[in-house]
Amino acid sequence: MTEYKGKKNTEKEVAHVIRHIRELLENDEVLPGERLPAERKISADTGVSRAKVRLALERLESYSLVTILPQSGSVLSSQPRTALIRQISSILDGNKYDFNSLVQVRNLLETAAVRLCAERHTPEDIVLMEKAMQDFVDNVHGPLRDEKDFAFHTTIARCCHNSVIYHLLLMITPDVLGFYRRLRACATLPEDVVQEHLKILECIKNSDPDGAEQALKSHFADITAFAAANTNEVPRFRL
Amino acid sequence: MTEYKGKKNTEKEVAHVIRHIRELLENDEVLPGERLPAERKISADTGVSRAKVRLALERLESYSLVTILPQSGSVLSSQPRTALIRQISSILDGNKYDFNSLVQVRNLLETAAVRLCAERHTPEDIVLMEKAMQDFVDNVHGPLRDEKDFAFHTTIARCCHNSVIYHLLLMITPDVLGFYRRLRACATLPEDVVQEHLKILECIKNSDPDGAEQALKSHFADITAFAAANTNEVPRFRL
DNA sequence: GCACGTAAATTGGTTAACCAATTCACCGTG
DNA sequence: CACGGTGAATTGGTTAACCAATTTACGTGC
User: Fold this and answer.
1) Which of A49, A217, B76, B209 has its CB surrounded by the most CB atoms within 10 Å?
2) What angle is formed at CA B12 by the lines to CA B6 and CA B13, rounded to 5 degrees?
3) Model pTM?
4) Mutate: best of A167, A181, A186, A224, partner B, most B CBs <10 A
5) B159 closest CA partner among B136, B197, B126, B208
6) b/e map of B67-86 (b: 16 or more CB within 10 Å)?
7) B29: which DSSP letter?
């Protein structure tokens, strides 16, 4: 009567375990920096198999919220209690972003990237960016258009020498692209896009942050307006 | 001759598998949107146990780079090839951020949050923020000081009604706090911090984005200067 | 020769038993 | 009474066998 179900409610059970851990934290049964109950204990308390408990803990570890010590136990990160709780909640919410928020942040990060790039680029950076630019021009009418467009923006983010900007941009990009595709946005003519990219690159090379910011802003003008008009889009993610 | 090793080189083997998948992608052996080799196949190809292969795939799935289909296989996300490769590389690098980059981005995100908050707060938002403010004042000399300080900033991020800003801020906060603690930064007098928080909240309530931005900037002035002076800090994370 | 159904092979998902390192309590010794 | 060591119990880590759903290939019947 194990009543084996081949379904994949793994996600739900993992979420249950994570929620359980959040409750432990909320009820002060474990404090930040302290040891969590053993995997077997959690498994017994929640009724979830140990493998799934393990999965949940590993997930939390990948967010740096717990550290699993090989033969000793799992300890909570020693951040402020509220920070832990909110981050756990954020994981449980599943990161469903709306289009407008995404576009705002993309604007924010890329603007900073472009400015920093203009201020402190090295000669090697210039080479990289011109290569990305040329790559884009060569493919602007081919099937790799989106690919190379993305690569150009990413290269700038890399050349701005701020690792956080680069990584966060990589992180939100899939969601942004998903919306673009779904909403059939980005109808600008290829030639215009090339010109806009060129203008941005030009300002960067001239070490002109304000000009670069302005060029980026007009590059994003259409999509910004579109996003502002299309807020409250149904959020659906995961590939 | 199984030569059982109780060590935890799990991380290294998982990384090996992820690197293997990146190579498949780089060599065009699998394209975005296509099916990956079966877990058992990957396990045989890499010499890593299937459980670890599984772990690697689940990690990639948690970043939305692959989707695991219950009894059918794992398929790559259909983003641009370059995007996938760079995101995988980013995971392999392990997200080691330097202090200066973190502070720059924190500035960026919180500035945007404060402005948005001033522009479009609701009455309920005001209640939440004043409650967070009061909470901070009540604990400014107690052991929960950092906790409540953090909670105040987070509440603003939540009230700005941009889910991406909120989540990204939550995401980088542990790293920021880690640096603060390690570098013994944040030596400002408690009373001054209260005043600065009050000023920010005041501007938000008056729907004055520029004032709020200015108040935030002076709130962050010390740490910004400190971070700029202490770049190239050795990056060490995970709790 | 084509279409359909069936069975075998392949897939991810799950479990339980086992391993070694660590922890901890207890007991003996100084 | 304090200290140190030893062994049992507990910990996370690993493995291999097994499950059901899906896919695939084949053979049968039309």
Assistant:
1) B76
2) 80
3) 0.88
4) A167
5) B126
6) bbeeeeebbbbbbbbbbbbb
7) S
Residue of B64, B80, B171 lying closest to A147 (CB–CB): B80
HSE (CB half, 13 Å, CA atoms) of A210? 0
Instruction: Assess whether A47 (CB) lies less than 7 A from strand C.
Output: no
Per residue in A53-64, pLDDT tens? 999 999 999 888
Strand nucleotide closest to residue B69 (CA to C1'): C12
- In this structure, is the CB of residue A66 within 7 Å of any atom belonging to strand D? no
Q: Which nucleotide is nearest to A69 (CA to C1')?
A: D12
Q: How far apart are CA B179 and CA B234, in angstroms?
A: 10
Sign of torsion over alpha carbons B229, B230, B231, B232: positive
Q: State whether the beta carbon of B232 lies below 7 angstroms from any atom of strand D.
A: no
- E strand or H helix that includes residue A13: helix A10-26
Domains of chain B as residue ranges with CATH = 7-93 (1.10.10.10), 96-235 (1.20.120.530)
Rounded CA separation B225/B230 (Å)? 9
Which residue has better confidence, A182 or A86?
A: A86
Confidence band, pLDDT 50/70/90 cuts, at residue A228: confident
Give the CA dihedral B68, B73, B78, B82, nearest 10 degrees: 90
Instruction: Give the bridge partners for A76, in sequence order.
Output: A66
Q: Over pLDDT 70: what percentage of chain A?
A: 91
Axis-axis angle for helices A123-139, A145-159 (nearest 10): 170
Res. B39: pLDDT tops 90: yes
* Tokens describing residue B112: 């945007």
Q: Is 70 exceeded by the pLDDT of residue A186?
A: no
pLDDT band at B185 (very low <50, low <70, confident <90, very high): low
pLDDT at residue A237 greater than cutoff 60: no
SS3 state at B184: coil
Q: Can you give the pLDDT at residue B67?
A: 93
pLDDT at B139 > cutoff 70: yes
Residue B168 is predicted with a pLDDT of 96
Question: With bands split at pLDDT 50, 70 and 90, how would you rate the model's confidence at B71?
Answer: confident
Which own/partner contact pairs does A61-69 have at CB distance under 8 Å and 24+ positions apart? A62/B59, A62/B62, A63/A87, A63/A91, A64/B174, A64/B237, A64/B238, A64/B239, A65/B174, A66/A36, A67/B238, A67/B239
Name the closest residue on chain B to residue A90, using Cα atoms: B167
